[in-house]
Amino acid sequence: MAATDHRAIDNDGFNKFLEKNLDLSHQGDNGFGGLFQRLVEVPRPFFKTQMQYLYKLHLRESNHDVQKNLQPSALHLLHMYNNVPKSVFGLPMIPSTSFFAYTWVTFMLLVDIFYTAFWVPINVAFCSVDYGALSDGCSQVELIGGCVYFINMMLAFQFTIVLACGMRKVATSNGRVTAVTYMWHSVFWLDLLSVSPFIYLVVILASGTPPTSWVTYLSLLRLLRMLRVISLTQLLYKDASSGVLNKIMVDWFGGVQGAFIALLTYVACVIVNLEACILLMVAFWNGTADSWLASITWLDAVDAPYAEQWYMAIFMTIISNTGTGSWGIHAYNLNEMIVFNILMVTGMVMYGVLVAVVLIYVTTAQPETKVQHQLNMKIKRVHQFIRSHGLPNTLANQLEAYYRNDWVHKQEKAAAGREELLQSDLPEDVRGHIALSSLLPVISFVPAFDTLSIEDKKFVCARMSALDLDEGYELCEEGEQPECLWLLEEGEVEVCDMHWHTHRTVQGPAILGDAILIMEQVPSCMERPWGYRTLTPCRLWRLGLREITSCLKVCPEIRVAYLDHVEKQLHEFLSGVDSQEGLDVWYCELVARITSVLKECDLEIQREALQLLKQANWKDMTLQVLLDAFLEVSAIYYAGGSVSKVRRHEEVRSMMAHSLPLTMAKVSSECSPEEAATESEIDQCPNSLSLHSTSVPVSAELVRAREDLP
C-alpha cells in the first residue's frame, strides 16, 4: 500500500505541474502561426521525457527557495542572474514572443522567400566557375548570406520553444530542452545544410585555394538551401488551404482560392528560375561560345549582359517545359541535351501535378483544413453580425466559444468515427497487438480487466477504438441509456449528477461507464448513474455495447471480477477500513454512486447494509438485487433537485430504514428458499416496505421527481 501512496503523491505533483504549465488550447497552430511561436511537434515519449526533466528541475529549484530569500542584498542580483534561463552557450534565453524574435523570424521568412528561392540559384549559375574569389561580387554576396544563415542557426539555440504533442503544448525556456528538441527536429539539419556552403567558402578563403574543378563542383552545395524553400512551401500550403492566417494572408488574395492560386504561381516561378539557372550553369561550364547560347541568331547572347542571358534562359525553360517549339535554339553537347530532356519531363510532371492538385483540392479537400476554414468563416460572420447590430462583445465571445468547442467537437466525433473505421479494417490479431501496446498500462490497473490473461486482454483491446477529446466535451449525461464504456488513458474527467453538479474528478488511468457490465443483471444500471465531462484534453478508448456483449461471452470472468470489486469496495466503505483511500485510487462509478447516498445514512442503517452485504452473493443473484435497491434510492436522492439538502437526507434515511428489511428478506429468500418469508408475512411486517410503495413517508416533491426519471 505504501508503494501505491508514493505513486499517487508523485503523480499528483506531476499532474499539478502539468496543469500549471500546459497550454491546452485546441486552436490550430499550424503553418506560420507555429513558425512564429517556434512550435515543434514531438512524439509522446519524447514529450513525456522532457516534461519529466522539467519537473525534476522544478523540484530542485523549489528546494532552494528558502536559501534564495536568505541571501545578502549584495549577492541578490548575482543570484537573480544565475536564475535567468540560459542556453547551452551560457547566454540568456530570448523569449519567442519578444519583438526581436518576431522581427528575426519575419526577416528570415523574407530571406527564404526571395534570396534563397531566387538568388541562390542565380548565384550558382553565374558564380560557379570563379567561386572562391573574394574580389568577385557573387562571392561577397554569398559570404553575407552565409553569415545570415549561421546567425540564424545560433539564434535557434537562444529562442525559447513550444513543445506540442497532440492537443498539449508547453512553452519552455530551458536551454537543454531547447537544444535537444532543436537538434532532434528536422529544422536543425535543414539549417546545418544551409550553413555548410558558408563554412566551405570560409575554408577556401582562409586557405587561399585557387578556383579549380573540384572547388566548382563542391560549390553546388549551395543548392541544398533550396530545401528551405520546400519547407517554406509546406507552410504556405497549410495556410493557403486551411485559412489559419485569415487576416494576414488569405484576405490579401480574396479568399482561400486566391491564396492557393498565388501559392501555385510562386512555386512555378521558383521551379522555372531554378531550371533556367541550371541551363546557364551548364553553359558557363562548357564555355558560352560552345553552348546553347551560341545558337541564338537574333541576339548576341554569348557576350550579352547577365540579365539578358538570364532572360533567354527563362525563355528557353518555358518553351521546353510547355513543348511549344525550340525557336531554333538547340543543344551543343551531351550535357545540354540531358538538361533539355529533364526540362521537358519536368514540364509534363508539372502539368500533371497541377491538374491533380486542383482536382484534389476541389473535390476531396482534407476534412481538417475544411473544418478549420469553416470555423474561421463562421467566427468572422459572428463578429460582423455583432458589429452591424451593435451587440455587446461579451455575446460575441460566447458565440465564438460555442463554435470553438461544441461545433468543433461534433467534427471531432466524425473524425473519431473515421479512425474507428480505419481500425476495423485491420485483422483482429493486428488490432489487438496495436491496442494492447498502448492500453496495457491502463487495462492492467482498472477494475474488471486487471485479472484477465494477456490473450484475453488482447481480445478486449482489439475491439476498442481510440478517442482524442478536447476539454469541455460531454461524454454522457446521467439517466442516458448506456451504449459503451471508456478507458481513460490520459487526462482528467469531471463526474457530475443530472444537474451537472460536480461530484468528483477522475484522472487516468481509470474506467468510466463501467456499470454497463452488469446492466443485464441489475435493471437500475440500464441508466447512466453519472454524467462525464472532460476537464483537460483526454485520450480515451471506447468499447461499444456490441463489443462488450461479445467480450462478456468470451470472458465471463470480467463481470465476476467487477462484482467482486464492487462488493469489496462497498464492504471497505461500510466497515470503515481504509475505504476512502481505496475509493480515491480506483474509481468505480457504481461504488461512487451508492456510497454517496450511504454516507448520508445513520450508523445503524450502515451496519444493517453491511450485514446485508455480507449475506449477498453474486452467484445466486442476491448481490445484484441488493445493488439494484441501493441504486433505486440513489436515483430518488439525486432527482430531488428542488428539495433542500437537509430534507433529502431525512427522506433517504427514512427510505433506507424502511427498505432494508424488505431487501434483507429477499436476499434471505434467495439464499435459503425453504426458510424464505412469504409475501403476506413481509406485508404484515410494520417496518418492511417496497421501494416502489408510495406509503413511505416521503415528500410529494420527491415522488414527482422519481416519476419524472427517464
From TrEMBL:
Q: Which GO terms describe its cellular component?
A: monoatomic ion channel complex
* Keywords on record: Ion channel, Ion transport, Membrane, Potassium, Potassium channel, Potassium transport, Transmembrane, Transmembrane helix, Transport, Voltage-gated channel
Superkingdom of this entry's organism? Eukaryota
- InterPro entries in UniProt: cNMP-bd_dom, cNMP-bd_dom_sf, KAT/AKT, RmlC-like_jellyroll
Q: Could you state a single Gene Ontology molecular function term?
A: voltage-gated potassium channel activity
| Chain segments annotated as transmembrane | 99-122, 142-166, 187-208, 258-285, 310-332, 339-362
Q: Does the keyword Iron apply?
A: no
The Cyclic nucleotide-binding domain extends over 448-569
* Annotated PROSITE patterns: CNMP_BINDING_3
Q: Which PANTHER family match?
A: POTASSIUM CHANNEL AKT1 (PTHR45743:SF2)
Q: What is this protein called?
A: Cyclic nucleotide-binding domain-containing protein
Q: What is the lineage of its organism?
A: Eukaryota, Viridiplantae, Chlorophyta, core chlorophytes, Chlorophyceae
